[in-house]
Design a protein that fits this description.
The complex is a heterodimer of chains A (172) and B (450). Chain A is of the alpha/beta class and 172 residues long. In chain A, helix 1 packs across helix 3. Chain A has one domain (4-136): Collagenase (Catalytic Domain) (3-Layer(aba) Sandwich), CATH 3.40.390. In chain A, the strands form two sheets. Chain A has a five-stranded mixed β-sheet, sandwiched between helices. A three-stranded mixed β-sheet of chain A has the order 3-4-6. Helices cover 30% and strands 17% of the residues of chain A. In chain B, strands 2-1-3-4-5 form a five-stranded parallel β-sheet, sandwiched between helices. In chain B, strands 7-10-13-6-14 form a five-stranded parallel β-sheet. In chain B, helix 4 links the parallel strand 4 (79-85) and strand 5. Classes of the chains: A alpha/beta (172), B alpha/beta (450). The A-B interface holds A 49, 55, 78-85, 90-91, 131, 136-137, 147, 149-150 and B 14, 16-17, 19-21, 23, 26-29, 83, 106-111, 113-114.
């Protein structure tokens, strides 16, 4: 039985969590838990970049059980070589992090649309859970595991795994 | 293509950079390796083939630029992407001038890395495809095989090798069927002109007007029937080789025009004024006595000397019978493939007939003979029965100054072969008794072949 958890730190959209949780449960065919964690990301803040180091965040949240956790946050996250990341999760890792900062229309000067934001968060979460379950990027552009580095790429792909990725995910 | 087949080596002294890039590429499905400095990178270079290298410029010890040069020395097609801090962009630009594929300035957008890596893979695939196409093209432009191991053939091959490397005009002389065009092809395909066309013109097969039009081309309306502009062979052979067979048969007017075109490497089409430039190399062939034609004034002396710069003489096949067994086996292989047959070779007695035959038509006649024999051959080896249509010794006696005893010996062998060494039948055909046959066999040292 897969033990999937979602959690949040400095997340502005906690009211969307229940809806997101339901959708992801359906898409991952799993029962997801929402867990509260007592964590502060201040130590991962880089004042020069005005961003939070995602690789340090996930390293600080290593777990010893077999659960897979995705943490939502609204702070802007990065890894040292990149200017930003939407989310980060290591292949077969136990923790991933997703930022709503660049998934929100507000960031691009467009009026906020909760439905679009929710869908992007769902797509990104299913994608990062896929990495935690050992899935690599998929060449099928409509699969949720297709690589996407811009929000329009997130919007065009499905929220679900393709047949091939789904079978790897289910058999993990 | 499967990303797992693309191998990427990340070389950076910063562990976070190595780890981040490695994780990123692994998520994309690539095979990734990392090295913390140039020394480790060079060691990994010797262990495996890498397609794409990401090199940090600033590293302790050997820097990224020097490592880039070392990698290029090792594999000139390697794709190297330089990782640089904003302050060292100028250095990265210099690396581009030295052949690096691209550079990225830290930190970079994830989508710019995605684009760079896609372009790098495209470049790598194009380079690989180009190499494969060149190799397949090389195989298409292999010089034709000249069969034979005799001293004469070895000398011919040496001459071809020598002259192919130059642009010298070559005259190939020899009887009909000795392989003059094959030698011309060999010269072309061993020269630097091999990727350009080799154009052949049989000068003896065309009337003077047609030959002029064939060589120089014509403009529309230049003569009755010239409905459209047509390029001449001299123009088509630009960059390549023009093979003029039976050069001795061209008429005086064409000789003058040809000499001018060879000297100036330019000419006009029939009925045209436009000067056409063409870089062609002339190889010509003849089986006639050009010197005699020059004496009689039938062939221009200046053209003769222009064409006679380097001459290759091909001996008639009867003067190099050592090559016949190899030629016979070669043609058996060729016609096995063409006729879907499985003839394994030729019986000794039949081969001896081939060796003793005079071959007035030279290799062409030998080839036709083998082809004809193979059409009707029933066994797995070609035998004398399959060559019943040729009369070797008649030709031999006519063409060679043989003694009466030699003619008698050869005739006895011929009849013995025809009767499959049935002495009674042979005696009957020769109208002598069996005892005389045995006496003759002893006298001439004739014994049945194995």
């Amino acid at each position: 039985m897969r033990n999937l958890i979602i959690s949040h730190v400095n997340f502005e959209y906690s009211k969307l969590l229940d809806e997101i949780n339901n959708e992801i449960s359906e898409l991952t065919r799993s029962v997801l838990k929402i867990e509260q964690i007592d964590k502060n990301f201040d130590e991962f803040f880089n004042s020069e970049r005005g961003q939070y180091d995602a690789s340090k965040i996930i390293k600080s949240l290593q777990k010893k059980d077999d659960s897979k956790t995705i943490i939502f946050t609204s702070v802007d996250i990065y890894i040292p070589i990149f200017t930003y990341v939407f989310g980060l999760a290591k292949l077969n890792g136990c923790t991933g992090v997703i930022s709503s900062q660049r998934l929100s229309n507000n960031y691009y000067g467009i009026p906020e649309n909760p439905d679009i934001l929710k869908r992007r968060l769902v797509v990104e979460t299913v994608h990062e859970f896929g990495h935690l379950m050992g899935l690599r990027h998929c060449e099928n552009v409509s699969c949720v595991m297709a690589s996407s580095t811009a929000v329009d790429e997130l919007d065009v792909k499905n929220t679900d795994y393709c047949k091939k990725c789904s079978s790897i995910f289910i058999n993990y | 293509m499967d990303p797992a087949n693309v191998k990427i080596l990340v070389v950076d002294d910063d562990e976070i950079v190595r780890e981040s890039l490695s994780d990123w590429f692994e998520e994309d499905g690539y095979s990734v390796g990392t090295a913390c400095d140039s020394k480790e990178a060079l060691a990994k270079l010797n262990e495996a083939r890498w397609d794409i290298y990401f090199l940090d410029i600033k590293m302790p010890g050997m820097d990224g630029l020097e490592l880039h040069k070392r990698i290029k020395d090792f594999d000139k097609d390697a794709i190297v992407i330089i990782i640089t801090a904003f302050a060292s962009v100028d250095t990265a630009v210099n690396a581009l001038k030295d052949g690096a594929f691209d550079y990225v300035t830290k930190p970079f957008d994830p989508d710019s890395l995605t684009h760079i890596i896609r372009n790098a893979i495209k470049q790598r695939n194009l380079t690989k495809e180009n190499l494969e196409l060149k190799e397949s093209l090389e195989s298409l432009t292999l010089p034709p095989e000249i069969i034979g191991q005799s001293k004469h053939i070895r000398e011919i091959q040496e001459s071809i090798k020598t002259v192919a490397a130059t642009n010298t005009t070559v005259m190939i002389r020899g009887e009909s069927g000795t392989g003059k065009e094959l030698v011309a092809q060999s010269i072309h395909f061993k020269s630097n002109r091999k990727f350009a066309p080799m154009v052949s013109v049989n000068c003896g097969a065309l009337s003077e007007t047609l030959l002029e039009s064939e060589l120089f081309g014509h403009e529309r309306g230049s003569f009755t029937g010239a409905h459209s502009r047509r390029k001449g062979k001299l123009e088509i052979a630009d960059g390549g080789t023009l093979f003029l067979d039976e050069i001795g048969s061209i008429q005086t007017k064409t000789q003058i025009d040809l000499l001018r075109a060879i000297d100036a490497k330019e000419f006009t089409r029939l009925g045209g004024n436009e000067i056409i430039k063409s870089d062609f190399r002339i190889v010509c062939a003849t089986n006639t006595n050009l010197e005699e034609a020059v004496k009689k004034g039938e062939f221009r002396e200046d053209l003769y000397y222009r064409l006679q710069v380097y001459t290759i003489y091909l001996k008639p096949l009867r003067e190099r019978s050592d090559d016949i067994p190899e030629l016979v086996n070669h043609f058996i292989r060729v016609y096995n493939a063409k006729m879907n047959k499985k003839i394994t070779g030729i019986e000794t007695s039949a081969l001896n007939r081939m060796i003793n035959f005079s071959w007035q038509g030279n290799i062409r006649e030998l080839e036709n003979t083998i082809e004809r024999a193979m059409v009707s051959a029933k066994g797995i080896m070609l035998s004398n029965h399959d060559f019943a249509f040729i009369n070797c010794d008649d030709k031999l006696t006519l063409s060679q100054n043989l003694s009466l005893a030699e003619v008698e010996k050869r005739h006895i062998i011929k009849v013995l072969d025809q009767t499959d060494w049935n002495i009674s039948q042979t005696a009957k055909i020769l109208e002598i008794d069996r005892a005389t046959i045995y006496t003759k066999l002893q006298k001439y040292g004739i014994s049945r072949p194995d």
